[in-house]
Protein 1
Amino acid sequence: MMHMMVDLETLDTAVSTKILSIGAVLFDPRGEGYAQMTFYRNLSVETQRDRTESQATMDWWAQQNEA
């Protein structure tokens, strides 16, 4: 059975958050663990004017390294 893992990088923890990027991978956890299919997309924050960002999340991002 295939599994999919999805990761969102956001600017808030609310459901109304601005999304920076979406990543996903399709894989078989019982197999070799190799990705069967991957997806990654950066999103434009400027097009998400009606979405939210929080100062706490912005502060957290400021403390993260570039990697």
Note: The beta strands are 3-10, 19-27, 35-42.
Protein 2
Amino acid sequence: MLFIKAAVTLALIYWLMARVDVETVRRTLAQSNLVFILLSFVALSAVFAVGCIRWWILIGHLGLSIPFRQVLPSYYLGLFFNNFLPTGVGGDVARTIHLNLRGHSAKPLIGSALADRAIGLVVMLLMGAVSILLSPELHVENDQKLYLVMLTALGIVSGALLFWFSDRLPIEKLWKRYQHTRIRKTILEVIHLCFTYRTAVKQVFAAMILSVMVQSLAILTYYLLANSIGIELSLVTFFAFVSIVQLATSLPISIGGLGIREGVMVALLTSVNVDVHLAATLSLLFLLVLWLCTLPGAVVLLLDKGRRSVAAKETA
């Protein structure tokens, strides 16, 4: 599977590079506005800080009292791994393991990571759907708007019913049935922990507000980079496009979403008559900013390896 995903990643990158003239992209990068690029670094760094606060709040509901200064390195480690694992959620596993190795219970960490991912996904889809309806560059027919509204409403109602009436699901009965197993019992316990957020109204509401901030800042990052190279689209359109790109990137069919993120963004931008070279340059700029902003995660990894090496020498 890893070989297949690597092949898909390389194929997508080749497809993208075959459509553009590298020299034109290079000239566009050289003429970009440095101020907007620096501001995009600030915006994306704020995305990660707010996202970490959101996870920290959700962790607290499940009874883990972990200082924020300890959660932040684990969160950055997850961000770093997200760029290089064969799925967009591999970083969730990395940050959970990192805190678990520091003596914190695994099940609440897994439950909080799942809740963090779910809340972020719901907010992203809602903001994306509204933005598609409001975008001046996207000419959506009235019947398509109606289908989108109905689909969004159906999703909200279904999710709300499942969440608020989760106490009626046979989780406890299944737990008793599989309490002598390891994996199924653990899965059921994690599911139960996730559904306890039903009673954590304040924490869930705070997480949703923070998710709106995370999504808005991520979109602002794209918008600033677009303006740095002369792409003139409304901010509302970027709200729609970035939501679609993030949804596609989360699919586990390439390494770290590489190739999918760039290809989908190029396809969306060219659909509203943006020059393909400008679209490709924007995708490369965002990738560069993303990698640089997640480098602190690599520092966390190196420091951990250094500590283990020192500990091993002292033990020897």
Note: DSSP finds 14 helices and no strands in the chain.
